[in-house]
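Q: Entry one of two.
A:
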Amino acid sequence: MDTITHTLFGMTIYGAVDKRQDDKKTKIAMFVSAVGASQIPDSDVISSLWDTEGMYQMWHRGITHSLFMVPIWALLFFLLSIWFLKRKDWRFLWVPLIAVFIHNTADLFNAWGTGYLEPFSSIRVTFGTIPIVDFVIWTIIAIAFFARKLWNKERHLLYRLVWILIIAHVALQTSQGYVLYKQYEDKYEQVALSASFLPWHFSVIGKNEHTVEIFDDALFTSPKLQYTLKSADEADLDTLFTEVPEAKTLYEWSPFVVIVDDKERLGIYDPRFYRNGQSFLFEYIEKQ
């Protein structure tokens, strides 16, 4: 998910905590813990500063987004809270634990995926059923925020309801994506999903041999073929990988790629991000 969504997640986690007996200092610490823990996995962006081998695509959303890093990040925030508050409050362990878990798990559902099982597996886990910016989630949170004055029960119960609605939305959309995926699975050798910004709509990308087809589809509508792409799978990519290390990283990172080998360029791109005649994840070299 994007930075704004993760920030909103942190604020909603903070809102769901019962703070009726807390003083101002504790509330400030709780807010920083909830929002900070919701952002901390993305601290891996600094790895781009020392990336000289084109590995950033793998490093970003890599080990910092691992399921096994969740308790480590939570413990860090817990220790910081002890230092700041000069006392133990176990909420400062489980709130960051929940926040980091939500961050790492939520990122599984969009097309970018994460290294959820690192360091034990380098597999990039991605479902592609939720867009990186989900306006349904934003809308649910916004309605709760503006309706909070009308809520006649305890405020934290309102934000717990928000989480129930978000989980229901993710479950509903993901189940629809799964059904669509299974429908295409028998038709193509390889299939990938990329959720549209329009709720319940998906780009379904299927590959058979050298042909990649991209459909706009939803469970309750007829599929629309958007693009048919040809991949030069027989091309030798050694030169490309040597001159552009990012291309090798992209090749390993993507579920499958389209290979371009024409008179002008040799390159590869991820078809999940193909829009208006090009993919913004495209690595290539110009031919002499």
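Q: Entry two of two.
A:
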Amino acid sequence: MHSSSNMRFIETLEKCEIFKGVEKSFIDEVVRNAKIERYGAKELVRIRGDECGELLFLVEGEAFGLFTNPEGRVLQIDHMFAPKLLAAAVIFAADSKYPVDVETVRPSVFLTLDKNFFVSLMMKNERLLRNYLQYVSDAFVFITDRFYEITMKNLVQKVCSYLVRLMEEQGYSIVTMDMSKEELAREFGATRPALSRVFIELEKLGVIEMDGKKVKIKSERYVRDCAEFE
């Protein structure tokens, strides 16, 4: 790849967080040593479990990071726009594999770069190294926040499903829990503090009102709608 014919890639990568404050000559070296991959809309770029032996930059277009469970349920983990480095947190793992499916939203262009070559660039440029370390750290924070969000959402759905069951069994919008929060937490595979936070949040939202083991369902529609998505 010749830098004269790829100025748009250089200009795009200059906007990427990893290359913030990095000399254009280093970015030019990245582009000259990278391979181009072009995809149409809704095409799979990488599949969860594929070997991750290179850096994968999205330089044009947009893509989803998707997780599909064994039952076929698809969960969107990330919506990525150019310019962006994908799977930054796993590239240098001992068993480096893509953690999610990468699927384009519209026609997109990617650049791939050998990770050992990128290491050699980082060893020459402290700014690039620091940018990469911050990028990986930010990616880790994003992943843990996303995991927490998904976990808490699933727990809210489980609690709402439980409340719907109690309403149907007891025939009233004021129900009595048939187990302690500790037992319920074990039932849901969650910690008691996490479960308590869900009940507190539902109270703050005005969905329920707690009085010991008694729960007043103030918004039956919210509870039933939430339970349907479990």
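A: Comment on entry two: The chain has a mean pLDDT of 88. The first strand starts at residue 35 and ends at 39.
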